[in-house]
Description:
- The chain has nine helices and 13 strands.
- It is an alpha+beta fold.
- Strands 2-1-3-11-10-9 form a six-stranded mixed beta sheet, sandwiched between helices. Strands 4, 5, 6, 7 and 8 form a five-stranded antiparallel beta sheet that branches. A two-stranded antiparallel ribbon has the order 12-13.
- Strand 10 and strand 11 form a beta hairpin.
- The N and C termini lie far apart (60 Å).
- The N terminus is likely disordered.
Amino acid sequence: MMKIRKPALRxxxxxxxxxxxxETAPDRGIVAANTRFGFKLFSRIAEQDxxxxxxxxxxxVTFALAMAxxxxxxxxxxxxxxxxxxxxxxxxxxxxxxxxLETALECLDPKVRLNTANSLWxxxxxxxxxxxxxxxxxxxxxxxxxxxxxxxxxxxxxxAWVNNKTEGKIERIIDKINPDTVLxxxxxxxxxxxxxxxxxxxxxxxxxxxxxGGGRKKHPMMSRSGRFGYLREPGFQAVSLPxxxxxxxxxxxxxxxxxxxxxxxxxxxxxxxxxxxxxxSETDGSLVLPRFKSEYELCLNDxxxxxxxxxxxxxxxxxxxxxxxxxxxxxxxxxxxxxxxxVDEEGSEAAAATSVRFxxxxxxxxxxxxxxxxxxxxxxxxxxxxxxxMGSVVDPKE
Length: 398
């Protein structure tokens, strides 16, 4: 483990299930920014994976990229902050805002568990900037562990951490470690909540679920009657299903048959969400909801580049001098996200992990080679080092 001085400032997180509160309320600007980014991200993913189940934790992606942003400088940082909808905020404001928010999220309700964890996994032998490492620990609780990335057990060690922090729901976030990888920055989130009023398993019965394109399938359908937070708008109806004491809820939006899911998702954005939330009102009714379970994963590189942070992925232009200075250029080589969700009669369980992988490339001057005179060449088997052919050309005849 990298030896670093433990910072003095840390807002204490109450034990899971306690009634403790964060020292200050979460900053509305941070929450609003996270909401805007979340819908922006989901919109691009849903468009890209149309016809598939999609499930992400935008907060997991936000925490991971916000940590990475601490090591960014110049245009790279500006683009990352803009993509996260945090332009105009100082690093201190972002870090403190996320710390207070994370603390508040982990004290939601005795019947709701939400645990977040962050970590840095660095290539052994490299020295990272002290401010970057200490801010990761101070504001995100992320200690740095040095590993020999050439050892296959390194990936296993990182995956074991993710598996543990997600209660076994995300078993693996890394397949292999590339030779140019210098750092993994990882966030993990685990959620488990019990419904305020559960669904009676006796009432669960096999029903018909209509698939896109006109297909139909038999599937277990849960049902419950009573009072719900309910919203009816042109094109859809929605219901709120609270967990525990009601501080956390699942919102289920059902588009009308004529409009469909893809049409509804076009209207999903932070502004619309803010307008919808106050309109839910207690209404008597009945609900039939499928029991479901889903696992999802994707690489976010192209989407994040499209959302405006392309410089961070650029091998030549990325600027992470606030993270590490190794003489070569450090850039984000991949952002990978995996998630799990299960919804049944008792409640919901969900987990997600986001991995930001940093690579390094040597910054050499560009060259200009014009082969316009006699030259030598060879054909070599690189696995064994065997030279299969060699020769020289003094007259390049066809």
